[in-house]
Amino acid sequence: MKAMILETLQELTPDSEPLKYVDWTDPEPQSDEVVIRVAACGVCHTELDEIEGRLIPPSLPIILGHEVIGYVESVGHDVTQHRIGDRVGVGWIYSSTGDSDENLDPTFQGTGCDHHGGYAEKMSVPARYAYPIPELFKDAEAAPLMCAGSIGYRALKLTQCYDGDPIGLTGFGGSAHLVLSLIHHLYPRSPVSVFARDAESRQFALNLGASWAGPIEATAPVPLKAIIDTTPAWKPVVNALRNLQPGGRLVINAIRKEARDQEELLLLNYHEHLWMERQIQSVANITHYDISEFLKIASEIPIRPTIKTFPLQEANQALRDLKFKPTRGANVLVMS
Ligand SMILES: [Zn+2]
Q1: Rounded to the nearest whole angstrom, what is the distance from the C-alpha of residue 277 to the centroid of ligand 1?
Q2: Phi-psi region for residue 137, left (φ > 0), alpha (ψ -120 to 50) or beta?
Q3: A Gene Ontology molecular-function term (predicted)?
Q4: Which of 69, 195, 247, 289 is the most exposed, fewest CB within 10 Å of its CB?
Q5: DSSP string, 252-311
Q6: 186 CA from centroid of ligand 1 (Å)
Q7: What is the CATH number assigned to the segment(s) 149-282?
């Protein structure tokens, strides 16, 4: 099969080519696994963390990618839940305990990090971590649901908001634009304020129904009950805390924060940013419950992710665009 592999960690520049297009051995299913013929794989910010070494894969080379949509090609002896030809998706959770807190367990394994992922024509995965994909989604548009959407759903649950609570989103890329649709569906009376660096993303948010959009350092029209931060930076954290109501909660949905602007944290003022029971909560990984629940809700809405597709061989371009260009939605690799 063909695959894009990561052999060495590096800082991604506007013309670097971190992944190599190669011939790779086809995967064979273990007794509890399925092998999937990949149709599409979304490009997630976590891949930048892996390439640039903030989240180091245990062994190299590795095939990245954890927003996978494909068709079951073969199944292990013990697999009962999927048949050959079924369409399934795979997210960031490759395997864990199956318990409700499996995202936090030390045995948690990540797709495209601890095991080869979906930047390839085929991949294998334990059958319980492959999910049926609702029919109404096309392959490529379903891909961002597997991480950006599912983990956005987990982040929204962790805000502990109720319908009517004003909610903020900091950063407006692959995950946040799906969370906005989720909020409209689950909390229809909640106004949504969006903080984004560039004017294009702010306009995109307003087009999708945000009630207000402003730059990262702006003050929202009303104090917010919760804010979900999906940026890789620190400045938005300090600003978000300033925009919270007393008792409000900042949910940081990012596996790693970049060190570049860490000195912004020195601006943290206890009275202004934390006093009055303001809280900070991180989001770690994902459970199979989150993904299954989210796919059901996504098909009820139905969520329609905004995507831009690239052939597998152009994964490097898709990654550079993610880092250097303001994105409108999600970049997705499609296999020929
Ligand atoms: Zn992801």
Answers
A1: 30
A2: beta
A3: alcohol dehydrogenase (NAD+) activity
A4: 247
A5: E--S---STTGGGGGG--IIIIITTT-EEEE--S--HHHHHHHHHHHHHTT----EEEEE
A6: 22
A7: 3.40.50.720
Other residues' Cβ atoms within 10 Å of the Cβ of residue 135:
8
DSSP H or E segment with residue 37: strand 33-42
pLDDT band at 32 (very low <50, low <70, confident <90, very high): very high
Q: Helices H, strands E: what count in the chain?
A: 8, 17
Ranges for all domains in the chain classified under CATH 3.40.50.720: 149-282
How many whole angstroms separate alpha carbon 64 and alpha carbon 5? 7
Ligand 1 centroid distance, CA of 92 (Å): 6
Q: Which are the contacts of 22, defined by CB distance < 8 A and separation ≥ 6?
A: 2, 3, 4, 5
pLDDT at residue 223 greater than cutoff 80:
yes
> pLDDT tens for residues 175-216?
888 899 999 999 999 999 999 999 999 999 999 999 999 999
Compute, in angstroms, the gap from residue 43 CA to the centroid of ligand 1: 8
SS3 209: coil
58 Cα to the center of ligand 1, angstroms: 17
Chain mean position to CA 66:
9
CATH class of the region 2-147+286-334 = alpha beta
Residues 6+ apart with CB under 8 A from 211: 191, 192, 193, 221
CA 94–ligand 1 middle distance (angstroms): 12
Query: In the chain, which segments carry CATH 3.90.180.10?
Result: 2-147+286-334
CA–centroid distance, residue 149 to ligand 1 (Å): 9
* Gap between the Cα atoms of 322 and 215, Å rounded: 19
Gap from CA of 27 to ligand 1 centroid (Å)? 22
